[in-house]
Amino acid sequence: MAAFVKFYSFTEALAEKKHNLGADTLKVMLTNTLPSQSNTVKADITEISAGNGYTAGGATITTTSSAQTTGTYKLVLADVTFTASGGAFASARYAVVYNDTAANDELIAYFDYGSSFALPSGENLLVDFNDSSGFLTLA
Length: 139
Description:
5% of the residues lie in helices and 40% in strands. By secondary structure, it is mostly beta strands. The radius of gyration is 15 Å and the shape is globular.
């Protein structure tokens, strides 16, 4: 399972109303360059090249649930599948989640898959946002 890493700026951006996690458009993009937790916006990330089924900017994530119960907020996101077609994707290692609605495409978190991988034509990459515990839980 890929390791979840939160960008430092996300906490401040949340407190300063740059995110409405229940309504904003969240996206996930792929990179092969290690993100720094001090990165703040999408422009700080070197995305893999578009092509062979991969679209620049990545894929839109569907929000399944955004709610609080007894003071604990939980954001549940639908998994995203990337499919290589007509050739392989460029090598990637990290899946970066960002807020496409925020003015500067504010970063939220990334997943580290542990090593670079190639996605050959016809193969899929599932970005699993953990339906049971949620993508994000705030207490």
